[in-house]
Specification:
This protein is an all-alpha fold. It has one domain (3-131). It starts with a helix and ends with a helix. The protein has helices spanning 3-25, 27-34, 41-66, 71-96, 101-131.
Length: 132
């Protein structure tokens, strides 16, 4: 694994472990950041389920730094999950017509994650093919 992959996986790990653990530990606080009101136990469960997913993604990125064989799968999973988040935001726009700055920022951040992952998948594939 090259240094660039370690840097990208480290950034992904820090970001998603940080937000994930924060959402698991303090669902009221994270809900306030995104404008949710947690009015039921199911609402708490939904927040914790989503932020549990982010925590696991961060763990995968962290482990991939040390278990190099996990990197490819980690990039693929990140690409799929964050592409689905982008798709959901785009569908929301077509359904509601709402496109506030916070949604645009989220889409750009998610697109950066997807772009980095696809770039590293392609670069690592080319490297593997040149070795063969």
């Amino acid at each position: 694994m090259n240094k660039l992959d370690k840097i990208i996986l480290s950034l992904l790990a820090i970001e998603h472990l940080g937000f994930g653990i924060y959402g698991l530990y303090a669902p009221n606080s994270i809900a306030g950041l995104i404008g949710y009101e947690l009015g039921s136990e199911f609402a708490y469960s939904e927040i914790r389920a989503n932020y549990g997913m982010f925590t696991i993604l961060g763990c995968m990125a962290l482990l991939s730094i040390f278990i190099h064989s996990m990197a490819r799968q980690t990039y693929i999973i990140y690409s799929i999950i964050f592409s689905s988040l982008i798709l959901g935001r785009i569908l929301n726009y077509f359904i509601t017509g709402d496109l506030v700055t916070s949604i645009i920022v989220a889409v750009v951040a998610e697109a950066i994650v997807v772009g980095l992952c696809i770039w590293r998948l392609a670069a690592n594939r080319q490297t593997a093919e040149s070795i063969d």
